[in-house]
Specification:
Blueprint (H helix, E strand, L loop, with lengths): L8 E8 L2 H12 L2 E4 L8 E5 L2 E8 L7 E7 L3 H10 L3 E9 L3 E7 L5 E7 L16 E7 L3 H12 L2 E9 L2 E8 L2 E7 L7 E7 L3 H10 L3 E2 L4 E2 L5 E6 L5 E6 L2
Parallel strand pairs: 1-4, 5-8, 9-12, 13-17
Antiparallel strand pairs: 1-5, 2-3, 3-4, 6-7, 7-8, 9-13, 10-11, 11-12, 14-16, 15-16, 16-17
Length: 250
């Protein structure tokens, strides 16, 4: 029997007002191979690392903000959508089919962070989230005004738990999120910050990425941070001002 991936990160999608500039940036920084998906009537580009599809890039239209969105795999898009909206989520895109991919929906959680769900077709989980693969998704942070309320919402929806909570300073507690025992991200509150999800993508060298980000037109927000376990992280904005982070060895 195939193990359920319900609640696992499974796709990353960038909405951007400068899709060509974004393609050039992510190709330079992450080495992604990006090509048109061939979807009729829309400019939707697929980013791959090796043979694995990692992310989609799409133009910002109809007032949509420049932002990364994280999708989480679900056993049933319709049932999860119904449970989420009952729990206070705001529907943005109701469940709909994506040919040859699965069934998806987009919502805003009760604290104000946007997220997507995807019910993949059999065998369609893919390798977008792979903590052992360079250039794939490695980590996910939710910046939210009420981390415990957010974790109650996502815990009920996806079965997530808080594996540990670490005091990061006098005003910040970082809660580590576990899915099926695997730590996949963190939740914390930051005064004055909007509520949103931030993806982390792996790189071969964080310190080398400092130079590649700058050379490609992105912004390095602060020096690399060492995190428990010997890894390093780098907080950046892409050329369109979209927030994300990189992680990997020094």
């Amino acid at each position: 029997m195939t193990q359920s991936t319900h609640g696992s990160p499974c796709w990353y999608e960038l909405t951007t007002g400068g899709i060509d500039a974004a393609q050039a940036f992510y190709t330079a920084v992450l080495g992604w191979q990006i090509a048109d998906s061939g979807t009729p009537g829309m400019d939707y580009r697929i980013a791959k690392t090796g043979d694995s599809m990692v992310a989609g890039l799409t133009p910002a239209e109809d007032g949509r903000p420049n932002a990364w969105m994280i999708y989480f795999a679900v056993d049933s898009a319709d049932a999860t959508f119904a449970a989420a909206t009952t729990a206070g989520a705001t529907p943005i895109v109701p469940p709909a089919d994506i040919p040859n991919t699965g069934r998806f929906a987009i919502m805003v959680d009760p604290q104000g962070a946007s997220f997507g769900i995807l019910q993949p077709l059999p065998g369609g989980q893919g390798g977008a989230f792979d903590q052992k693969s360079t250039n794939a998704g490695h980590w996910h942070e939710i910046i939210t005004g009420d981390p415990m309320a957010a974790m109650k919402f996502y815990g009920d929806l996806f079965g997530w738990t808080i594996s540990r909570s670490m005091q990061m300073g006098p005003d910040m507690t970082y809660h580590l999120i576990a899915w099926n025992g695997l730590e996949i991200g963190g939740a914390f509150s930051m005064s004055g910050a909007p509520n949103y999800w931030k993806p982390y993508f792996g790189v071969a060298s964080v310190k080398a990425a400092v130079q590649s980000v700058k050379a490609a037109g992105g912004t390095v927000l602060r020096d690399p941070d060492e995190v428990p376990g010997g890894a390093w992280t780098l907080q950046i904005n892409d050329p369109l001002g979209v927030s994300l982070a990189l992680d990997g060895p020094a």
